[in-house]
Amino acid sequence: MTTLKGTAVLVAGGAGFVGANLITRLLSLDAKVRATVHAKDPVILDERIEYIRCDLTRMEDCQEVVAGIDKVFMCAANTSGAAVMRSTPLVHVTPNLLMNSQILEAAYFAKVKKFIWISSSAAYPPTGDRPVTEDELLDGDPYEAYFAVGWMKRYTEVLCRMYSEKLADPMTTVVLRPSNMYGPYDDFDPRTSHMVSALIKKVVERNDPLEVWGTGDDIRDLIYVDDFIDAMIMAAEKIDSYLPLNIAVGKGYSVKQVLQAMLDADGFTSAEVVFNSPHPSTNPVRLVDTSLAAQVL
Q1: Which residues make Cβ contacts (< 8 Å) with residue 83, sequence separation at least 6?
Q2: Most CB contacts within 10 A, which of 55, 180, 190, 191?
Q3: How many whole angstroms separate alpha carbon 276 and alpha carbon 274?
Q4: Which of 181, 179, 200, 180 is nearest to 189 (CA)?
Q5: First and final CA of the chain: distance in angstroms?
Q6: Measured between alpha carbons, how far is 158 from 194 in angstroms, rounded to an integer?
Q7: What letters, b where the CB count within 10 A reaches 16 and e where it falls short, cover 3-17?
Q8: β pairing state of 219-220 and 285-286
Q9: pTM attached to this predicted model
Q10: Is pLDDT above 70 for 161?
Q11: If you average pLDDT over each of 138-147, 160-169, 192-201, 206-215, which comes out highest?
């Protein structure tokens, strides 16, 4: 039986992709769910959810939402795709650092028992076509296109470690580094979406020609959001000390392979695919080693 039954849980970022899917799972486990929303309206409508509209860059709002909470799942973040990362990288830095640092501090002083935070495999340095392990995070700068977001993630991981290991009265923090996620409630806005949702939209809308940014040869490990939620729940139940974990499938596919699977699934056999290599691309190969998570979770 899950230890989350009856637990007071905060899902920060309850209207987002991960947050909405997490709320659904937590309700099925009979947790007491509070969730924050900001610009977007709630996606999951259920009378058991206590929604609070707030701005997590404000400390007073952070203090309000963590009051009386046992476990915090920090899913709130400013996120976007490769184009925004290159053109305006600071949108990934300033608001996220404010939110992360302030909600960590508010949770600590509210005596939250456990804080679960989502990092990213984009924080790793390039390792060629070799899967990267958790202890290689600081073995060099992140890939150039991820420099800003990568260092923002690294800095927040250091904060998580501080709260978990460097204070006289520590707060357990759990750091998960997922690979590329996809699934229900994903972001399908072409200005901010990631690779999978962007391609799904183009396939479903029968774009002709169907333009793909980059060469199509980039390799990614794609994880379905429900599988990542499994990891979040298990980590919240099983991990009691600071321990960053890679969460992924452990197998890479090229963008071309991913697109072909979509075209086959949707029956779009007449698609004229055009690869636009000058458009923003990112790390050619991004693979992570999942053996530690398999062992611990």
Answers
A1: 191, 213, 279, 280
A2: 180
A3: 6
A4: 200
A5: 16
A6: 26
A7: ebeebbbbbbbbbbb
A8: parallel
A9: 0.92
A10: yes
A11: 160-169
Backbone angles phi, psi at 152, to 5 degrees: -60, -45
Amino acid of residue 235: A
Q: Which residue has the tokens 């909405």?
A: 20
Largest Cα separation within the chain, whole Å, is 64
Domain architecture of the chain: domains with CATH: 8-186+221-251+288-296 (3.40.50.720)
pLDDT digits (tens, 9 = 90+) for 125-137: 999 889 999 999 9
Question: How far are the Cα atoms of 5, 65, 155, 207, 256 from residue 96, in angstroms, in the given order?
Answer: 30, 17, 11, 34, 32
**Closest residue by Cα to residue 225 from 254, 257, 255, 248:** 248
Mean pLDDT computed over every residue of the chain? 93
pLDDT for the residue 9: 98
**What SS3 string covers the chain?**
CCCCCCCEEEEECCCCHHHHHHHHHHHHCCCEEEEEECCCCCCCCCCCCEEEECCCCCHHHHHHHHCCCCEEEECCCCCCCHHHHHHCHHHHCHHHHHHHHHHHHHHHHCCCCEEEEECCHHHCCCCCCCCECHHHCCCCCCCHHHHHHHHHHHHHHHHHHHHHHCCCCCCEEEEEEECEEECCCCCCCCCCCCHHHHHHHHHHCCCCCEEEECCCCCEECEEEHHHHHHHHHHHHHHCCCCCCEEECCCCCEEHHHHHHHHHHHHCCCCCCEEEECCCCCCCCEECECCHHHHHHC
CB 196 within 8 A of CB 222: yes
Q: Would you say 238 and 297 are in contact if contact means Cβ atoms under 8 Å apart?
A: yes
Q: In which residue are the tokens 């923002």 written?
A: 152
